[in-house]
Amino acid sequence: MAARVTHSQPTGFGPRDIFVAAMMNILWGLNIIAVKMAVEATGPFTAAVLRQAIVFIVCASALRIVPGKMRELIGLGFLSGGIFYIFVNWSLAVSDNISALAIAGQLGVPFSLLLAVVFLGERIHIIRIGGLALSLLGVALLVFDPAAGRELPGMALTACGSFIWALSSLIQRRMSGVPVLTIYAWMGLVGTIVLIPVTLWQEPEALRSLPALPLSDFGWIAFSAIGSTICGHGAMSWLLQRHPITSVVPLTLAAPVISVIVASLFFATPLTPIMIAGGSIALVGVAIVTIRTARVKEHKG
Question: N or C: which end of the chain has fewer CB within 10 A?
Fold first, then answer.
């Protein structure tokens, strides 16, 4: 998705790079609050279709036919732009302890690794296997916590969303050379097309009441679309164009920590010792898998 780093590109992080990385993590970390508030204000599917419509509107000028990549772009739009948000927003609609969902959302990284092994024949060694086991163990610990155990339906939906995200990551590997805004233009367009019939079927009243939606509620949706999706991922692409993968990828690990903490504070839900332990173990596992995978990609690149 991002341009390959060359030797002429800078490797040291200056103040501007650090600022961009910090903003990226903050935007991604706060997004879980924005999505939950949007879901509560409108409904899970209405919030999803509005988010993708905004993404498309903002990126529409970059929409163009990309020869040899259209099957991947349509598939990515269907999965990551549509089906992913059905599961994620639905999980937030049926859950109260959002911190537990933020921890369960880390399953996307091990799922992505497993799919790469199965479908791409990627070989993994003991270090990444250990990271994979830790990430799964950390999430599994949440089942034994009463505060998180009550959120099993939401966690199961989050796990399904994480699996869709992992499938999408396989497609994104084939997006090299395609501008980021073009990718998100297609994701917004296809995602909107996928989500409209679902929303009409499940939430017709929510759609009809949109003209009366307060501006503050619409702001949550706009934050997710513009702040998290476009600016957050745009920042990631900008950093990857300037620095090696192995330098940029570890920086993203701050986002789930921010999500867990701010969700607990904002919604006044408990962050129990078991949740802290499970989240820490899962994050360590995700860090191992993420950093080692980045090194493998860097070596192949």
Answer: C
Rounded Cα–Cα distance for residues 139 and 136 (Å): 5
- 42 touches 206 (CB < 8 A): yes
C-alpha 212/C-alpha 48 separation (Å) is 18
Residue with tokens 């395609």: 178
- Residue pLDDT, tens place only, 57-87: 999 999 999 999 999 999 999 999 999 999 9
Count Cα neighbours of 299 within 13 Å in the Cβ-side half-sphere.
6
CB distance 227 to 47 below 8 Å: no
**Measured distance CA(74)–CA(56) in Å, rounded:** 14
What is the C-alpha separation between 130 and 87, in angstroms, rounded? 28
The percent of the chain in helix, strand and coil, each rounded to the nearest 5, is: 80, 0, 20
Rounded distance between C-alpha atoms, residue 161 and residue 158, angstroms: 5
Weakest mean pLDDT among 157-161, 248-252, 269-273 = 248-252
Please say whether the beta carbons of 98 and 92 come within 8 A. Answer: yes
pLDDT of residue 146: 86
Rounded to whole angstroms, what are the CA distances from 255 to 60, 107, 157, 259?
28, 14, 20, 6
Q: Which of 78-82, 168-172, 239-243 has the highest mean pLDDT?
A: 78-82
User: At residue 6, does pLDDT exceed 70?
Assistant: no
Cβ atoms 201, 44 nearer than 8 A: no
Domain boundary assignment for the chain: 15-300
CA distances from 290 to 57, 131, 284, 293 (A): 32, 9, 10, 5
The Cα–Cα gap between 301 and 297 comes to 6
Residue type for position 250: P
DSSP 272: -
Closest CA to 292 of 244, 246, 240: 246
